Amino acid sequence: xxxxxxxxxxxxxxxxxxxxxxxxxxxxxxxxxxxxxxxxxxxxxxxxxxxxxxxxxxxxxxxxxxxxxxxxxxxxxxxxxxxxxxxxxxxxxxxxxxxxxxxxxxxxxxxxxxxxxxxxxxxxxxxxxxxxxxxxxxxxxxxxxxxxxxxxxxxxxxxxxxxxxxxxxxxxxxxxxxxxxxxxxxxxxxxxxxxxxxxxxxxxxxxxxxxxxxxxxxxxxxxxxxxxxxxxxxxxxxxxxxxxxxxxxxxxxxxxxxxxxxxxxxxxxxxxxxxxxxxxxxxxxxxxxxxxxxxxxxxxxxxxxxxxxxxxxxxxxxxxxxxxxxxxxxxxxxxxxxxxxxxxxxxxxxxxxxxxxxxxxxxxxxxxxxxxxxxxxxxxxxxxxxxxxxxxxxxxxxxxxxxxxxxxxxxxxxxxxxxxxxxxxxxxxxxxxxxxxxxxxxxxxxxxxxxxxxxxxxxxxxxxxxxxxxxxxxxxxxxxxxx
Length: 483
Ligand SMILES: Cc1ncc(COP(=O)(O)O)c(C=O)c1O
Prior knowledge:
Blueprint (H helix, E strand, L loop, with lengths): L2 H9 L9 H14 L8 E2 L2 H8 L3 H13 L3 E4 L2 E4 L12 H5 L36 H14 L14 H14 L9 E4 L2 H12 L5 E6 L3 H9 L3 E8 L2 E2 L3 H6 L4 E4 L13 H14 L2 E5 L24 E6 L11 E4 L2 H14 L5 H12 L2 H28 L4 E3 L6 E5 L6 H10 L5 E2 L12 E5 L5 H17 L1
Helix pairs in contact: 2-4, 3-4, 6-13, 7-13, 8-9, 14-16
The chain binds pyridoxal-5'-phosphate.
């Protein structure tokens, strides 16, 4: 055996995740054996002398030797350790390239996150996160405790692939009562949130290369899901009435799927007019497309009740309605749902049974209790008031400090609004400067799903105390004016 090679490999600069000394030595030896650099019958140095050569502890060497003996690559007889005569069968197919080749993501999984997520840390104007500090943890804990007191062992099994029937019924009641969705509990499928719902829809309803439309600018999570399903994604411009495909686009780029946020366009905040909704449904029927209606934050509409969901607007609308508890309760709950047309209930049930083994029944049952006992409605009422106060404070601060350059888009619903900036300002570099100062804004140009049509910033205000909002807008204004 060429010990120099082993030493060099052991001491080589590590790429990838840092390994313990034990694992490093084990991998070096293992690779040398599998590559044939350390031939069958070779007697390895004693643990003491190898430890001394490599300046590591003897236990580190013993660990590596023991693991390789357990794998059948080494034999430990008497006082010496020897490379096994016949290597285990799994090694016969291992080629040199297989050992060293780094693993990379497939092209469809190589998506571009923006911006790096501060994850868990408070950052002013981070969008998509509700006022976490206002969530009634004690009430939630009581709902969970009640469930765990009554749960039986049978309920620890894989759960119904469509979700807990009692939660599906509670959601159906909520949607028919507040959103004009026409459905029964059987049409509701519980998921781990909208992101999973989108993945399921993209996978189930379109084939590789099929055309999918998304608003431009639009929701990055949806864009990535459609891309990950290897669909041919086309960004369709939005106007004040929402997604605005032209007749030519319908004919030339006929979609199989259309992703849209009609209640509060993400990120510009327009509300799709009734006429546009009816026209979109009509064209979707004509061209055989399915609309994915992402109703992610309509519960917080402030200027009058939200327009009814597209799903219930027209009989037999080809619409899959998606909802989530990420904005109304908290994102880490990871519970969302899809409402599918009656004709798709059976196929979806079959597909989900095989492909998405469901569980976490206790969380679902607790959520059903939270809804049924009125806690959900109460929480929404409080949050609606809170978000209105914060939105108003933000609008006032923007007018005061940015009125000369910024145009406000949206804000009638949800927990974010956007500001448009003149084209000569670079929203990406403004956003990067702001992040460095603890103000997290998403540049609108990065939310382009095709040609860049907008320049500006998206501001989530749910988590920022109304008294602090002006302070952060001032920081932002200073950055913008310095650009
Ligand atoms: C447009 C839109 N839809 C849905 C969601 C929620 O997704 P999930 O339920 O996966 O948390 C978000 C979150 O930011 C969003 O912005």
